Amino acid sequence: MVPIDEVLYFEAADKYVRVVTSKREHLVRSSLRELLQRLDPQRFWQIHRGAVVQCDAIASAQRDESGKLTLTLRERPDHLVVSRLYADRFRGM
Predict the structure, then answer these.
(1) Model confidence over 4-26: pLDDT tens digits?
(2) Where do the H-state alpha helices sit in the chain?
(3) Domain count, the chain
(4) Global model pTM greater than 0.85
(5) What secondary structure letter does DSSP report for 36?
(6) What's the pLDDT band for 89 if we cut at 50, 70, 90?
(7) Category of 46 on φ-ψ map: left (φ > 0), alpha (ψ -120 to 50) or beta
(8) Is the separation of the CB atoms in 64 and 72 below 8 Å?
(9) What is the domain extent for residue 39?
(10) Model confidence at 93, in pLDDT bands (50, 70, 90)?
(11) How many contiguous H segments (helices) and E segments (strands) does the chain have?
């Protein structure tokens, strides 16, 4: 079990979900849809149909010339792409 406070983001991976923390990655046999129902929507934001990020883990949000929005995380070098459907949440960043 991974403490929810350590989770930076969840990412769909076939029949599994990758649970990413600052130091490790884990696979759980569950769907992202099932996980979303159990997560606090104030703390965990869906940014893509296959990705959910902990809002406190976001260091910055940058938009490129084509309008694509990419998130940089605080404790990992990963960059997460935000789909257009969820981009409105980051308008103020």
Answers:
(1) 999 999 999 888 999 999 999 99
(2) 32-38
(3) 1
(4) yes
(5) H
(6) confident
(7) beta
(8) no
(9) 4-90
(10) low
(11) 1, 8
Rg (CA), the chain: 13
> What sign for the dihedral angle of Cα 25, 27, 28, 34?
positive
Q: Given the structure tokens 């849809």, which residue do they identify?
A: 33
Closest CA to 17 of 6, 31, 4, 5: 31
Residue given tokens 């990412």 in the structure block: 11
Contact 44, 58 (CB under 8 A): no
φ/ψ bin of 9: left (φ > 0), alpha (ψ from -120 to 50), beta (otherwise): beta
pLDDT value, residue 92: 65
Q: Are 80 and 68 in contact (CB under 8 A)?
A: no
CATH number of 59's domain: 2.40.50.1020
Please name the residue that has the structure tokens 């257009």: 84
DSSP element (H, E) containing 88? none
pLDDT band at 2 (very low <50, low <70, confident <90, very high): confident
